[in-house]
Amino acid sequence: MEFKCVPELNNLVGFIGSEKNQYTINFDENRIIIGGKSIDFSNKFKEEFGTRYLEASILLEAFGVNITFNPRSLTAKLKSRFEIPFIKKLRLQRMRNNINKLQKKEVIVDTIIRRDYHLFEFGTLDWELNSAQNTKGNVNSAIRLNIGTELFYGAANFTANYTPKEQISIKDIGVNWRWVNNDNKYISQARIGRVGRQNNNNNNSNTNNLIGATINNSPNTVRRAGGSYTITDNTEPNWNVELYINDVLIDYVAADAYGLYVFKVPIIYGYNTLKLKFYGPLGEERTEERVINTPYTFAEAKTITYSLTAAVSPNNYKEYFSSVNFNYGVTRNLTMSGGLQYSSNTTKANFFPFMKVAYQPLSIMVLTFDYLHNKSLASIMNLNITKNAFLSVNYLRVIEKQSNKLAQLNVGFSMPFASKYFSGFTGISWNRDIYELFNYDQIRFRASGYFKKLRVNSSSFVNWTSENTPQISTSLALSYNFKNNLSVITEGAYDAALNKLKTIGARLQLKISEINLSANYGRNFTSTKNNYSLNMSYNLPFSRLNISNSYDEEVLNTSQAASGSMTINSRNGVLHTGNNSAIGKAGLLLYPFLDLNENGTFDSGEEKVLISSVKISGAKAVISKRDSIVRVFDLNSFVNHTVEFSDTNLNNIAWRFKHKTYKILTDPNQYKKVYIPVISVGELSGMVYLTLDSKKRGQGRVNIQIFDKKGKKVTETLSEFDGYFSYLGLKPGKYTVRVDPEQLKKLNYKTLLTAQEIVIKVDRYGDIVDNISFNISEIKPIIPLELIK
Questions:
Q1: The pLDDT value given to residue 285
Q2: Are 343 and 350 within 8 A, CB to CB?
Q3: Which of 2.60.40.10, 2.40.40.10, 1.10.3720.10, 3.40.980.10 is the CATH number of 682-778?
Q4: Which residues of the chain are under the pLDDT cut of 50?
Q5: What is the spatial distance between Cα 661 and Cα 642, in angstroms, rounded to a whole number?
Q6: Per-residue pLDDT, 1
Q7: How many CB atoms lie within 10 A of CB 463?
Q8: Which segments of 203-302 does DSSP mark as H helices, in order?
Q9: Which residue ranges does the chain devote to CATH 2.60.40.10?
Q10: What is the pLDDT of residue 617?
Q11: CA pair distance 532, 570, nearest whole angstrom
Q12: pLDDT the model gives residue 656
């Protein structure tokens, strides 16, 4: 229990619970003195073979520690009036581990498995077939293929689209290559393909509109700088949205009845890629990934980071863009940035120096100032008013007069709320565009609430210019999820200026096993049209099938689609098929095996071992009883994953994992094969006998020490009350077993045989040595001859 206990003469002194609660155990007077009390334990004390015992009732009376023994289960239950030091130590360690996970600090592991680099390795494949028809005779079909490989030590993804009615052109083929090496301090990341603009004074999501290359020296690990900001947007109602930073899943939320979702995004050191992925409640997966331009770039203190980008416009190859950007962390909370942008079109070319400051004066406030020479001046403030309430103020001043727009101001406030029966989110934003002749204002109010399985969303817009009457519109959406996988969504939009409904709609969603059904109805009062649709999807292990039908009182539209993915290895063929995207993903093939010669290699004659469970960060393992291989799917490439094993998951008591924890860096677009050695350990057992007055009996509480062939102590164990001792966990080899000489000396005992040599042999089920015995006896004092006479 790790109580403070120090021997002083024939006393034990220390404290219980806190340093103020001192105690003394006096063995001369058989008394415990604690908190002004003196407790006599004369009749509740026993000493045997150098060990002193107190009855459990004394521990309760003196220290407030109650021990209850259950003879049926051979367990003891311990309760105390204070936090036991050992329990406190475990609690604090657990807290530190949780903090490390939140802050993405390195986890200490037994073994690190680094990346395998290949010039080329074929990997993953996504496929999609779709066809659409309508009653007007139009038929459109398309084939889409995505191929993921490792090429030149990086992840290379190829996209090809084919439409039978059109000829294949270069625009139908896309290439994206990405390389990551966090151990290289000069170039940590490189990318060829779609790249985004840096320092363009906006936070729009659609910044990946250039084709080119970029490099930087920021690792792709998530290193939290402190502070946060919010992302608020819309998708389909009740869809799940995942937020990734540098391909690491940070958080996921469910959109409400109107499709609103909100993320609290931590601010991370370095250049970071933020992605959002969308999944439907009936098994849909939206393959689009929104890449967000992060508003803040912080560098660690006294550290320089850079980014170089060169790109062209995909619509006009005569338009170029390039930039060089440097960031220096002045302090932990202040980063200075600067660089140069170059852009050209068919008429002129321009160089634009820029500078940027990111500052966190308080833990709840983050500021940034961004100046692009002769073009714009921008500033952003993000303030955490409370733990979850956010205020943001964005201001952009246009310097270059290419249009009539002079400035833009955006103020947003968001706050969650909760009560005993109702919880949700509310937000209000005001946006003003300032032009030379007028101002355009827009106020938007959003509120989303949850009551058990009922979701409510209300959204209102007010738009006006300097001289016009405000336009007001309001929308309301409700959804309810029933127990039988049935959900109902209703929504409507109202125009306050015209005092009439604009649209109404209803949707039914039902999931039956792997079949997903949805029926929709909508009416547009402006066009006086009714819209109907019926959709069905069916999830197979290797594919997802979709059939859709819609009717708007004029045209009946139908469509069919099938999609799936597979992971292919040049040596083993198809390793995995699925109905979700596999591009950019990775996997693990774990081979636990019995390493009889302990060289860490799966040699001929050694066999695979079936395990019952394994822990893997951010993933689920599938253990095959057929071949004993542990397969892990849908991992992100270039990301470290922690794998934890436990000896209790082996079906032989003599087996042990050579390494309990692994940190494995995944390879892009492929499955990484990792061998997990399991060793077989041996057991020794024996007896300790005490001879007194020519009588021999087993003796407990004797300390047995075990040393390896180099003389290093491996472990020690105590004999039981009847003299029996045993230890399981010795690797094959030579050992020396002996009785602790210090204990014998202290108790004035001796043994005829001081030590015994044993050999643990290599055996699949573990070797057992059970013929060890020690005989100890009391050292009798030598009586001088003159006293004998």
A1: 58
A2: yes
A3: 2.60.40.10
A4: 99, 102-104, 199-208, 287
A5: 7
A6: 55
A7: 16
A8: none
A9: 585-680, 682-778
A10: 75
A11: 48
A12: 94
